[in-house]
Request: fold
Amino acid sequence: MRAAVIGAGPAGLMAAEVLGAAGAHVTIYDQMPSPGRKFLMAGKSGLNLTMDGDPAFDQRFFEANARLAPMLAAFGPQQVKDWADGLGAEVFAGSSGRVFPKAMKASPLLRAWLSRLAGYGVQLQTRARWQGWDGAAPVIGGAPVEADVTILALGGGSWARLGSDGAWTAHLPHVPFRPANVGLSARWSAHMAPHFGAPIKGVAWKAGGVVSRGEAILSARGLEGSGIYTASRAVREGAALTVDLMPDLSADEISGRLSRPRGKASLSNHLRKALRLPAAKQALLMECAHPLPKDLAPLVKALPLPVTGLHPLDEAISTAGGVPWDALDEGLMLRDRPGVFCVGEMLDWEAPTGGYLITACLATGRWAAQRALATFS
Reply:
């Protein structure tokens, strides 16, 4: 069987691995000069492959839970760990359950993966952009390519410089892209400038029904970081963002501390001594609590933040939107193009950070390749 895999990210490489291991003649095409660009970028923060110990792992994908559940049951966190170990990239789980290679980078795993694919006879052609169709054949680099099966793994709409530019939407049905796991924009006064780059830790970000205990970084443009990414979907859907600056204390406990005699101490010093608020948290409270009420405790527990929107789509870690599920059969094959499968982030789903995204990309690539083999080999 001749297979064309278009896109050399995690989903495409996994599809190529399954097809190559089964004896198919596989060629991977990627428009970038080298494979796995976004995968390597993820490795700069340690390469969070999956999440360990989450019994509801397959329920973290919002509207796509039911569609992804069988794929994740077949290739979920344990299978990802075993697969990485099999490539010589031994993994470990951090205190949060996030699973990383012990090398804390992507390049050793990617090299081992490409070596395995080469051993299966898989070919790789870079600087090869998919440009649509010539009849039933995919057009790559201006010429039609003969293939019995085509796996499209073209990515979402963020990080265009790494290859996920969303240009494929000119040729396929799609739900418009929306940013996911993205920073939030905010307007700060000049008084906040000394605190740009400071981390905001030990807080609880709240938007709609979402509560996130992750940290964030103050920037001139707004807020970035894992705590903000978790809340960004709710903000995207219209929820206001608040922050509980002291989530481990009640409002009454905070009021009690603030009611202690202040003497000649400034409000800033009083907050520092009574609540042990770091300078960046104090600045955030003073920035967003105008006019100052007599009782600051309710604001310490639910400080409204001046969020004006989300950072641009191209800056998002991932995207919602993509090929709609009703355009695909249960095997991820396009209903109106037999033999053409869609996998990975180009599908209409989104996931939180924490390894969910990479795991689902691997699982969908594996699932489609297995269905392709069962149907066309």
About this structure: Residues 98 and 354 are 6 Å apart (CA to CA). The chain has a mean pLDDT of 95. DSSP finds eleven helices and 22 strands in the chain. The radius of gyration is 24 Å.
